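Hello forum,

I keep getting stuck at the same step: I have a sequence, I want structure tokens, and every attempt I make locally crashes halfway through. Rather than fight my setup again tonight, could one of you with a working pipeline run this one for me? It's a single chain of 392 residues.
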Amino acid sequence: MKRSKLAIVALAMMTLIISFPVLGKWKEQGDAKTYGGKGTEVPTAVVKAKDGGFFVAGYFSETYNSDPKGWVIKLDKDGKKEWNMIGAPGKIYTALAMDDGGYLVAGYAQGDTVKNGVFSRLDKKGKEVWGKPIGSAVSYILETKDKNYLLIGTGKSEGKGQDVMAAKYDKDGKQIWAFNYGTNFDETGSQGFENPDGSFMIAGTQALTSTGSRTDMYLLQIDKDGKLGLYKHYGWPNFTNGLFVWPMKDGNYLLAGVSTGIGKGGSEAAFIKVDKEGNKLWEKPWGGASADYLSYIVPAGDGFLISGMTKSFDDADGDGFFAKLDSDGNVSGVKMYGLKGWPDQVVAFVPVEDGYLFALDTQNFGDQSENLWMLKVDKNGDCKIKGCPGVK
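Reply #2:
Ran it on my machine without issues. Output:
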């Protein structure tokens, strides 16, 4: 795998976030709240705000066929909307709360999705402080131990394809370094974390053929200055997409993603444990007779918490799910959320007092366009009070 400097694309600067009229109002559903109007509001990330509330990022479309625009919404601790904003054409894929009460958001702008990346800092009211156009689509932001920020995503390769991108920025949006990492085929970067020694582990997907007819998930390690070290790829016979990597309590790493053709269904959640040298220790799929998708995973205790959408259990249209994954790759305590008729997906979640707050993408409320559904559950994934819709 090669490393190359990231080419910065000169784009006309545009204000990412502008004032946006209210599309609808929150609808109380027990411990569930939905938001949306005639347009489509798709959540991609939720973070805890420094004031105790919550910040959700994603994208909005006025109609099903119209171009998406970046979208953010701020909620207080009880789920009451404080403000929401919409930005320039594109999608926000990742968000991070800052110590000053503001937020970092990133994704891509309209046009070539692997060239027109955007990275912005917002104040606590959603007003843009600065916006940086960069030459890559951004899928994840993490704060580094030295109080800077690492962006992970996908950029244009020196050839005709696309590579993994990693770039380090300071709090004022000044680039410290940026590199692409790739082979002769296409690669995409998804997520990562920082090791105690300052190096970074990155998860993503690599095409194994020029046509992309087979893909593997990969594990990539770079040092604090972006120098490439470990690179390994793993997968099953068909498509395997790498979405996450996290450290395990025993010093090894867990890779997580989605694969096809390894179980009874069309797709399954896929988990691979590797040691520090990248040697595979075990691999396990999870799913049923239909299609199942992993959306989110975070460490919890000795294992992990996972969420996504399943079409294998109860509702063929798709239900959101939440479950526990132990250190041996066994899934337990599966809970599902949704109503029959349209799909629901637990996109991400954050811990709250005595439980978790879910951000779901749903089409089961309002006009059946995609809306944001916020749902509070206890530590077992059950609603804290009676009356939550669609909890199974």
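DSSP finds no helices and 30 strands in the chain. If your local run keeps crashing, start a new thread with the error log.
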